[in-house]
Design a protein that fits this description.
This protein is α+β, with helices and mostly antiparallel strands. It is built from six helices and six strands, in the order ααααββααββββ. It folds into two domains: 2-73, Winged helix-like DNA-binding domain superfamily/Winged helix DNA-binding domain (Arc Repressor Mutant, subunit A, Orthogonal Bundle), CATH 1.10.10.10; 76-120, no CATH class. The chain has helices at residues 2-8, 13-21, 27-34, 39-50, 70-73, 76-89; strands at 54-60, 63-68, 99-100, 103-104, 132-133, 136-137. Residues 1-94 form the HTH hxlR-type domain.
């Protein structure tokens, strides 16, 4: 999670990606709709392009739009999850809601391998980090050599 937030969790990154998800791909639209000072989205968009989340596409000579890359599209469940969570738990009356085939979206996690719905009870951590268990760093035992 920390690595993901390092790349995409900045205060202005998520709103910029939200705007691109909504189809607002031009810098002026992104800056206006995020409410950020123009220098902030400029820096964040450049960073998201450098990190491979977005790509710039020319639509007129010297004029560009931003589009999600494959890596950016894989953030779609995260963006939708954050938005639906916020609509339910953090906003009294959300100004926009996501719909899917004419109804408000209710996302769910499904394992693409087995097709089963995922609940927190189904998840099991496996550590692949040397010196770490799922509880954290392995206890270090200090061995004292006899004199």
């Amino acid at each position: 999670m920390a690595a993901t937030l390092q790349v995409a969790g900045d205060r202005w990154s998520l709103p910029a990606m939200r705007e691109i998800l909504f189809g607002n791909r031009r810098f002026s639209q992104i800056a206006r709709n995020t409410g950020a000072p123009r220098d902030r989205p400029a820096v964040r968009l450049k960073s998201l392009v450098a990190d491979g989340i977005l790509e710039k596409r020319e639509y007129q000579a010297t004029r560009f739009e931003y589009h999600l890359t494959e890596a950016g599209r894989e953030l779609l469940p995260v963006l939708v999850g954050l938005m639906t969570w916020g609509d339910r738990w953090a906003a009294d009356d959300p100004p926009m809601v996501l719909e899917h085939h004419g109804h408000r979206i209710r996302p769910a996690m499904v394992c693409r391998t087995c097709g089963q719905a995922i609940s927190d009870d189904d998840l099991h951590l496996v550590s692949h980090a040397p010196g770490w268990t799922i509880s954290g760093p392995e206890a270090q035992t200090d061995t004292v050599q006899p004199s």
